[in-house]
């Protein structure tokens, strides 16, 4: 039984279709959700985090249905049971202005039913240590930098080593060193949790995720192992002096030559090793150009 | 004052003979009174300034909510504070509570600390005042060292004994010859750093009484010193 | 002064710690410690390490998780569970400022009513039921609650949190208002009669909030109640708003509201939050 099992999930906001029949199933390990803005990533994460309900389709988290239906109304216990094993880092998280980092995480710990004071304090210290904020624990959150605030948010999501960990853009605002630390933390978490993280950065997916789902316009365009996705770009990436007009996407590298993805090979081109980014761009192809041109949809 | 300074130098010479080191410049009458009057003390010995500087850096970090700095300050100061408190009050639970309150107060009030003062002295001030206020209602706990009892066992090393004998032999006697009221005033104000007002509250007398007694104790001690052969020894 | 300084050797410090030094020697050591960080540090290992560790653990805990403000501590004293007090302490409508302004508003209203002679109870009857209603509205949290998404997805539950906060608000405000009610002229039952509308308006507010949100709901309730009280200035006795018939009407509306809330718990495709 997978920890997370979604089938044919749809969700609309007014006339906008944010999710259009998405299947998603994963268990322990780190799964990446990749996609352009407006693809529906945040909506999907919110459904997995039980923050909103799907309009249709089946959702099973840890084998339980968080929604309930007319035929089988969910007991309040089901959703609560799921939430006891859930950690969530929303895309935008605000903090009460005068709380300290420790106080904030402790508050969330109380919401997560850590009722015994000693155990709670030890757990708060543990997660703050995991994200490297032990020395800043007693500082007011208002005085922390953006990346540090994000780490406070990450810390609260790690409380209790939840079986399902949902992280919406956890790497924004982090510098390369902090991202490396995050990768370490998440790879450890992936050992016992089902981690779902969304990101724009293909390097994060490449470094951190075993599986990746590419979401475009509310549909899953790819769902599989990262190496498989990279393999789809095999033989379609070159280095050339002149890109030519037929490539899917190309750019000038620092060395002066052009990195060309897709389309027929330009004259004098040397094949290059494909990266995840190449595969992603190839997959988006025309979709990406359209998505970038269109106004940002509700995600 | 310059005459007194020459005494220091002579004593330094004597000290060196015994240990190859400098003076045990502690309970020398003038030293003590001068130190008290110079409050807040500025820690002017060579080791004093550098480490007080470090302490000040730590306090600055504590103001910035750095718990590691607080731990470092704790490691430096909790030990001697504990021992010194225990010499005033033999209830270890009370001492532990006071010690905890002191460092929590340090955390909360670090901004109140004037940036150029003496951290060790400030901490003792907080700790001792807390101890005093806590024990004010309890009359059974010892707050002052036993001036009248015999010197207990645990004899210090031979060299120290000689040194102490040279340094204090007669000063100790002079202190013991002070009446108890004068002694307690000297202990509270000069040695423990209370203000005359606080000492008055602790001892149950008026502030003016404390000041008068202090003044007369000073005069007595100076008088006692000149009577002894100390100065002859140090020629 | 010599640049080389004397330091106390280990035995001397140990004697000091063990209490084996006489008063003069002890005082000497203390004066030396005032100035010598090296000897201070040297004394550290000689002092009871487990005791010092215990004290440090206490210091760290007090610094990381400071004691809650007074109202929360009072609540704890009265038997409220510790986790609940933590949640309440973070509630805006239980902050000192809010409670104080509630008290002030009620006091003014009572004073106005008392001073104007027995006839005009309107100020008090207007304000007293609205104070708890506004308090409960603010128990929903700020408009853009920074923690909203975390509260919704936590096992504790948003509904439970709102109810606990509302209870906290009511408990903190109602007794004071009852006492003020006793100051008023008029029949004694007046002092508690206004509780009828107060306790009825709360579920009405909650039911409205399900559809239009707490702010709009509170505004609607406030306007409606003001209308009722102002009517009492037009030729009916001052106690009209809280007389028996009217109380029955409020109670009926409250029951309907509770029904609405109950229906919402049964609605399908809802994630958790009833309120």
List the defining traits of the structure above.
A: 299 residues, alpha/beta, six-stranded mixed beta sheet, four-stranded antiparallel beta sheet, 25% strand, C: 275 residues, mainly alpha, elongated
Folded structure, characterized:
The complex is a heterotrimer of chains A (299), B (235) and C (275). Helix content of chain A is 33%, strand content 25%. Chain A has helices at residues 41-48, 76-84, 101-111, 117-130, 146-157, 176-189, 202-208, 226-231, 276-293; strands at residues 4-13, 16-26, 29-34, 56-61, 86-89, 164-168, 194-199, 211-216, 219-225, 237-240, 249-252, 258-261, 270-271. In chain A, the strands form three sheets. Chain A has a six-stranded mixed beta sheet, sandwiched between helices. In chain A, helix 3 (101-111) crosses helix 4 (117-130) and helix 3 runs parallel beside helix 5 (146-157). The longest helix of chain A is centred in the C-terminal third of the chain and has 18 residues, at 276-293. In chain A, 45% of the residues are buried. The model of chain A is unreliable at 295-299 (pLDDT under 50). Helices cover 70% and strands 0% of the residues of chain B. Chain B is elongated. Chain C is mainly alpha-helical and 275 residues long. Classes of the chains: A alpha/beta (299), B mainly alpha (235), C mainly alpha (275).
């Amino acid at each position: 039984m997978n920890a997370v099992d979604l089938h044919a999930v749809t969700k609309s906001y007014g006339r906008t279709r944010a999710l259009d029949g998405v299947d998603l199933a994963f268990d322990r390990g780190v799964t990446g959700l990749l996609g352009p803005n407006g693809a529906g990533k945040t909506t999907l994460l919110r459904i997995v985090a039980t923050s909103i309900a799907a309009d249709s389709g089946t959702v099973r988290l840890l084998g339980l249905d968080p929604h309930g239906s007319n035929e089988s109304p969910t007991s309040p216990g089901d959703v609560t049971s799921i939430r006891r094993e859930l950690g969530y880092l929303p895309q935008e998280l605000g903090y009460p202005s005068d709380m300290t980092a420790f106080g904030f995480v402790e508050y969330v710990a109380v919401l997560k039913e850590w009722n015994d004071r000693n155990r709670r304090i030890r757990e708060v210290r543990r997660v703050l240590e995991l994200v490297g904020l032990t020395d800043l624990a007693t500082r007011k959150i208002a005085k922390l930098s953006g990346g540090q605030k994000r780490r406070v948010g990450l810390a609260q999501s790690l409380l209790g080593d939840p079986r399902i960990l949902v992280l919406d853009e956890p790497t924004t605002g982090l510098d390369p060193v902090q991202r490396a630390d995050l990768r370490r933390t998440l790879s450890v978490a992936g050992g016992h949790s089902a981690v779902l993280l969304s990101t724009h950065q293909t390097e994060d997916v490449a470094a951190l995720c075993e599986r990746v789902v590419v979401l475009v316009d509310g549909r899953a365009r790819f769902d599989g192992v990262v190496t498989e996705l990279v393999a789809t770009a095999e033989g379609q990436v070159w280095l050339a002096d002149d890109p030519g007009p037929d490539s899917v996407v190309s750019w000038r590298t620092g060395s002066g030559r052009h990195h060309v993805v897709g389309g027929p090979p330009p004259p004098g081109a040397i094949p290059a090793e494909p990266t995840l980014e190449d595969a992603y761009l190839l997959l988006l192809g025309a979709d990406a150009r359209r998505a970038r041109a269109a106004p940002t949809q509700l995600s | 004052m310059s005459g007194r300074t020459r005494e220091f130098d002579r004593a330094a010479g004597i000290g060196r003979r015994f240990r190859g080191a400098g003076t045990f410049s502690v309970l020398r009458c003038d030293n003590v009174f001068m130190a008290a009057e110079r409050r807040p003390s500025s820690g002017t010995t060579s080791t004093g300034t550098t480490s007080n500087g470090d302490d000040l850096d730590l306090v600055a970090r504590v103001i910035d909510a750095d718990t590691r700095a607080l731990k470092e300050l704790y490691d430096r100061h909790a030990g001697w504070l504990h021992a010194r408190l225990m010499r005033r009050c033999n209830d270890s639970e009370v001492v532990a509570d006071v010690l905890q309150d002191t460092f929590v107060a340090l955390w909360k009030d670090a901004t109140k600390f004037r940036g150029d003062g003496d951290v060790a002295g400030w901490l003792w001030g907080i700790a001792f005042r807390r101890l005093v206020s806590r024990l004010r209602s309890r009359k059974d706990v010892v707050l002052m060292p036993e001036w009248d009892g015999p010197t207990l066992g645990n004899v210090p090393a031979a060299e120290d004994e000689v040194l102490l004998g040279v340094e204090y032999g007669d000063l100790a006697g002079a202190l013991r010859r002070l009446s108890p009221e004068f002694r307690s005033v000297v202990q509270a104000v000069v040695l423990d750093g209370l203000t005359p007002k606080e000492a008055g509250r602790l001892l149950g007398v008026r502030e003016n009484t404390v000041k008068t007694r202090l003044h007369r104790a000073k005069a007595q001690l100076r008088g006692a010193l000149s009577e002894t052969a100390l100065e002859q020894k140090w020629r | 002064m010599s640049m080389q300084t004397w330091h106390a050797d280990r035995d001397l410090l140990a004697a000091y710690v063990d209490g084996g030094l006489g008063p003069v020697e002890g005082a000497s050591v203390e004066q030396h410690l005032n100035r010598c960080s090296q000897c201070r540090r040297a004394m550290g290992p000689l002092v009871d390490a487990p005791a010092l560790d215990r004290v440090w653990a206490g210091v760290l805990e007090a610094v990381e998780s400071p004691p809650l403000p007074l109202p929360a501590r009072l609540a704890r004293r009265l038997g409220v569970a510790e986790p609940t007090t933590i949640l309440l302490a973070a509630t805006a409508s239980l902050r000192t400022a809010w409670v104080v302004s509630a008290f002030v508003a009620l006091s003014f209203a009572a004073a106005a009513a008392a001073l104007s002679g027995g006839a005009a109870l309107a100020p008090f009857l207007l304000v007293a039921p609205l104070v708890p209603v506004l308090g409960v509205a603010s128990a929903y949290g700020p408009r853009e609650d920074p923690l909203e998404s975390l509260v919704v997805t936590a096992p504790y539950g948003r509904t439970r949190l709102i109810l606990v906060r509302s209870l906290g608000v009511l408990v903190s405000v109602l007794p004071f208002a009852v006492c003020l009610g006793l100051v008023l002229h008029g029949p004694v039952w007046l002092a508690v009669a206004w509780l009828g509308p107060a306790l009825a308006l709360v579920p009405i507010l909650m039911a409205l909030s399900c559809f239009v949100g707490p702010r709009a709901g509170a505004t609607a309730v406030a306007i409606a109640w003001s209308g009722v009280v102002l009517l009492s200035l037009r030729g009916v006795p001052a106690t009209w708003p809280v007389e028996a018939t009217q109380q029955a009407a409020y109670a009926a509306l409250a029951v309907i509201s509770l029904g609405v809330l109950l229906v919402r718990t049964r609605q399908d495709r809802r994630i958790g939050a009833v309120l």
